[in-house]
Amino acid sequence: MDSMKIRDAKSIIIISVYLIMNGLILMTSLSQKKESSEISPSAKQLAPEFTEIEKLDYFHMKDGVPQMSLSALAMRSQGQEVADFSDPRGVYNYQKKNKTIRYSADSGLYKKAKETLALEGKVEFFSDEANYFADKVKYYLKQDLIIGSGNVKFEGDDLKTKDHLIILAESMRAKPEAQLTEFKGNVKGTLERKKKYEGRMVFSSNELELEGAKSLAHLEGDVEMKRDNYLITAGKADMFLENFNKSLKYFVLNDDVKVTERMQTPEGVQMRKAFAERLEGFGREQKMVLSGAPRVEMGEDVIKGYRITIRENVDLIEVDDAMSDVQVKRKKLKE
User: Fold this and answer.
1) Is residue 256 situated within a structural domain?
2) What total number of domains does the chain contain?
3) 198 lies in a domain?
4) What distance in Å separates the CA atoms of residue 250 and residue 279, rounded to the nearest whole number?
5) Mind listing the pLDDT tens digit for each residue in 179-207?
6) Quick check: helix, strand or coil at residue 158?
7) What is the pTM of this model?
8) Does residue 70 lie in a domain region?
9) CB-based contacts of 129-134 (< 8 A; 24+ apart in sequence)
10) What's the CATH number where 297 sits?
11) Is the pLDDT confidence value at 97 over 80?
């Protein structure tokens, strides 16, 4: 009996130790879970937090020089890679040349790694050569590229002629340092000559490419050009701004060209119409040369030829080719 009691006591001790060990293991497991749940939020806190600053000046340094600088009413940044600005106004310094471009907008987002600046709301860019306006703009600083959309406007003076140029469009793609700008969508513009008495040109097209360094504008699609008393329509056109006062082509139009001119004649005001596949205009001489099955109509008179030259506001037509066909139609007298 005594041996049984001792054996039972040993069993009880062993079982008790076993239960205590299991309890300790269970408590340790629960404690680790609790610690892991408490660690998780702190791990999340290691992610970049947003920082907000009011009334600041921001600089992006490159080779010890502030390549981009701006001031803003407020900035909200995440780490050092992304910054959101309110009412940003700044300057970008070109590295290769001593040139700058200034900008402003209602809001902006700068991505440092990609060196891009997205601006919205009354966006304005001012370079040494021209001014750019739009509702939205993405500025790729490294590529010298401005992509704008919504109420796009370009305004500047031609470097060679000092003529003032204004262009409106739905979108644009500009490289200010290279002086290259592409406009698309309902393009409209005016060209004001430096000397006011030389008049102005009003034009429109679907697309327009402006090469400032060459003083050249290329228009594409549903082209219209208005100057003084005449209107020209065509499929495409080139305007050589530098050639206005030279004995060179000032503008060239191709594809289904039509000229409508309002003229004052002894018989009263008449409309002169000309049709051709190509037209070359000479600014200083105020003449237009038509080729490609050209035809001129004025009242009941119709003139056809290989090449026809008409002069602005002059009731005189030059037919260069001897094989030209001149047809004059007159109204029949009433009996």
Assistant:
1) yes
2) 1
3) yes
4) 11
5) 899 999 999 999 998 887 777 899 999 99
6) coil
7) 0.77
8) no
9) 129/156, 129/157, 129/159, 129/176, 129/179, 129/212, 130/154, 130/155, 130/156, 130/157, 130/176, 130/179, 130/181, 130/212, 131/155, 131/156, 132/172, 132/174, 132/176, 134/172
10) 2.60.450.10
11) no
